[in-house]
Automatic annotation (TrEMBL):
Designated name of the protein: 2-C-methyl-D-erythritol 4-phosphate cytidylyltransferase
Keyword field contains Transmembrane: no
Organism of derivation: Nocardia caishijiensis
UniProt entry keywords in alphabetical sequence: Nucleotidyltransferase, Transferase
InterPro entries recorded: IspD/TarI, IspD/TarI_cytidylyltransf_bact, Nucleotide-diphossugar_trans
Superkingdom of this protein's organism: Bacteria
Lineage, opening ranks: Bacteria, Bacillati, Actinomycetota, Actinomycetes, Mycobacteriales
Region (Disordered): 205-251
Recorded GO MF terms: nucleotidyltransferase activity
Length: 251
């Protein structure tokens, strides 16, 4: 999953450096796994991949990743668990940063009705589904903004949550069903099916899967969608890829 996630970031053409954050005991294995990953198309320079040690919480790991790329102009924070994220989605997030957005996240409409509950499990409310979005990665940020967010002691389940607490506006772009988080055994079965189908019919596998979610996803997009993968201006952009260190990931 880490390898696929890093390959996707590089294939987007939008990154200059990838920092992979892993538990200490997996540094050697990750380094070996990724040693031949700094590959790009014929006309592009290779993208270096650095492996660094993370921390106990998501925020500790992202903080370590930021420290490993101190000169970046932009950061894309990505989950290795979203290993099948299409490079076009990564490029879409990067393009919005390039266009001047300080914080950009991929979003999909929510298909289930969502309820809040109290500690006893009793329903306390039903938020309007039309106003909800499921948020994916990579999440893109102006580097100074993300560094400021990480200079605080705030906690959140995603990086955009930290940036929101600073009062910054976070913009959404259309997410992609293929950027789903591979967390449960069922997710893994789906991921394997996607990869098998890609091997058997590379051209139409992704297209048909993407089209299943695209019209609704497009309606969630509050910004212009660009499908090109231009490099970001003004110095390095860095990718922080979370390690697949979740205990619930199926082995
Ligand atoms: C960042 C994220 O993928 C957005 O949906 C999600 O919050 C990550 O959660 P995790 O518990 O760290 O996997």
């Amino acid at each position: 999953m880490v390898r696929l996630a890093v390959d996707g970031l590089i294939a987007s053409g939008a990154v200059h450096l990838v920092v992979v954050v892993v538990p200490a005991e997996l540094v050697d294995a990750a380094s070996a796994l990724l040693s031949s990953t700094s590959l790009t198309g014929d006309s592009m320079p290779p993208v270096p991949v650095r492996v660094v040690v993370g921390g106990a919480e998501r925020t500790d790991s992202v903080r370590a990743g930021i420290a490993a790329a101190p000169d970046a102009g932009y950061y894309l924070v990505h989950d290795a668990a979203r290993a099948l994220t299409p490079p076009t989605l990564i490029a879409r997030v990067a393009a919005e940063l390039q266009a001047g957005r300080p914080a950009v996240v991929p979003a999909l409409p929510v298909v289930d009705t969502v309820k809040s509950v109290d500690a006893a499990g009793a329903v306390t409310g039903t938020p309007d589904r039309a106003l909800l979005r499921a948020i994916q990665t990579p999440q893109g940020f102006d580097a100074d903004l993300l560094r400021r967010a990480y200079a605080t002691d705030l906690a959140a389940t995603d990086d955009a949550g930290l940036v929101e607490r600073l009062g910054a506006t976070v913009h959404t772009v259309a997410g992609d069903p293929l950027a789903f988080k591979i967390t449960t055994p069922l997710d893994l079965t789906l991921a394997e099916a996607v990869l098998a189908r890609r091997r058997d019919a590379p051209a139409d596998a992704t297209a048909s899967l993407e089209s299943a979610g695209t019209p609704e996803a497009a309606s969630a997009d509050t910004t212009t969608q660009l499908a090109t993968a231009d490099s970001l201006p003004g110095g390095d952009s860095a990718q922080l890829s979370r390690s697949a260190d979740r205990s619930e990931v199926a082995k």
